[in-house]
Amino acid sequence: MHKLVVLYSKPADPDHFRDYYVTNHLPLVMNWPGLLAWRYSFDVAAIKGEAPYFAVFEGDFADAAAMAAARASPQGRRVAADVANYATGGAVIIHYPVQGGTG
């Protein structure tokens, strides 16, 4: 599995971010080809001190090639272009292959 993570810094208008993200952005994300699962949160907290991020998104893909194809697709380009409509604080996008285990 390959994971895509988006870490959003605090926006200028948190209420607009939340509303726009749920109403407009997530419906675009749900149309990404190859997206196996997704999750997000606006309740990002740090173990110690203030969290450096306001919100987080996680998307799961079968592998790095599936993620790259999704991002390059017309739907992926729409998702990327839409970020400017709500993420005024900026976003950090990372991705990595997931290693597994059980506890």
From TrEMBL:
Question: Where's the EthD domain?
Answer: 11-88
In terms of SUPFAM superfamilies, this protein maps to: Dimeric alpha+beta barrel
What the entry lists under Pfam families is as follows: EthD (PF07110)
List the InterPro entries hit by this protein, alphabetically.
Dimeric_a/b-barrel, EthD_dom
Report a single Gene Ontology molecular function: oxidoreductase activity
Q: What is this protein called?
A: EthD family reductase
Task: Give the organism, scientific name.
Answer: Streptomyces beijiangensis
